[in-house]
Design a protein that fits this description.
By secondary structure, this protein is an alpha+beta fold. The chain contains 3 helices and 11 strands. Helices cover 16% and strands 31% of the residues.
Length: 246
């Protein structure tokens, strides 16, 4: 199935999207930046200035046969050293040869689930999020106009399962719960979404849930039907390449 009118309209809508920026440091302000909520209380407050490592994830959207907009997700391998067995978006750390965040997201998606970059039309880059490992994670939105052209091939060393979920579920107060936590003096909510597919149950939460809430809000141009209560802090200014942490 080729691009529908709805997908074409979505492409045009997202291509003009601009991440909200902080004029002082050129990156997104903390009011619009998520944090990996699972990290709260597990590591020390951030120094005033540091250079976080870069990473990117791919929010790959497509329409199913019913015209429903869906997003491709993975369940990470249970043998991984971090976030084992958790639901995630395809993505990972930037490598030296990556031209930009888009290249990182596409490369990682190809490595993890066999998604050919030529099948994906990258249309937007969202505000960065901060993970518990102090990764500056940039979500990249891409459109897969021909879902039938993509046959997932999971890299078994990284991915256990590839599945998809309706994007609008991340705006609904259904099959969702939250927990209030504190980090750096700020109270915020951890969001958990229960989902079932392929006769399997999945829990989508933490950083992945926060990114998908943001993505759904941008795509559908409306806020979620539940309180987000995001942490109020800024990702510190990125230092020049030749600056190192003390």
């Amino acid at each position: 199935m080729g691009s529908t009118r709805r997908l074409l309209n979505l492409i045009e809508q997202l291509r003009i999207y601009k991440p909200q920026q902080d004029e002082d440091d050129g990156i997104a302000d903390g009011e619009d930046v998520g944090v990996d909520e699972s990290a709260a209380g597990r590591f020390e407050p951030l120094p005033a200035r540091f250079r976080p490592k870069k990473a990117a994830v791919l929010i790959c959207l497509f329409e199913n046969e019913l015209g429903q907009l869906r997003v491709i997700l993975t369940k990470r391998s249970s043998t991984l050293s971090t976030h084992a067995g958790e639901v995630a978006l395809p993505g990972g750390k930037a490598e030296e040869g990556d031209e930009d965040d888009k290249a990182t997201a596409l490369r990682e998606a190809k490595e993890e689930i066999g998604l050919d970059p030529s099948l994906v039309c990258v249309v937007a880059v969202l505000e960065p999020f901060l993970s518990k490992h102090l990764l500056r994670v940039v979500p990249v939105i891409g459109i897969l106009s021909d879902r039938k052209a993509f046959t997932p091939v999971a890299n078994s060393s990284e991915v256990e399962t590839v599945f998809d979920a309706p994007l609008d579920m991340f705006l609904k107060n259904e099959n969702r719960r939250s927990e209030e936590r504190e980090w750096m003096g700020n109270m915020f909510l951890v969001h958990f979404f229960d989902f079932e597919a392929q006769n399997k149950k999945f829990l989508i939460w933490g950083l992945t849930a926060s990114i998908l809430i943001r993505a759904a809000s941008v795509v559908y141009k409306r806020p979620p039907s539940f309180p987000e209560q995001k942490p109020k802090f800024k990702i510190p200014r990125l230092l020049p390449e030749n600056c190192q942490m003390p």
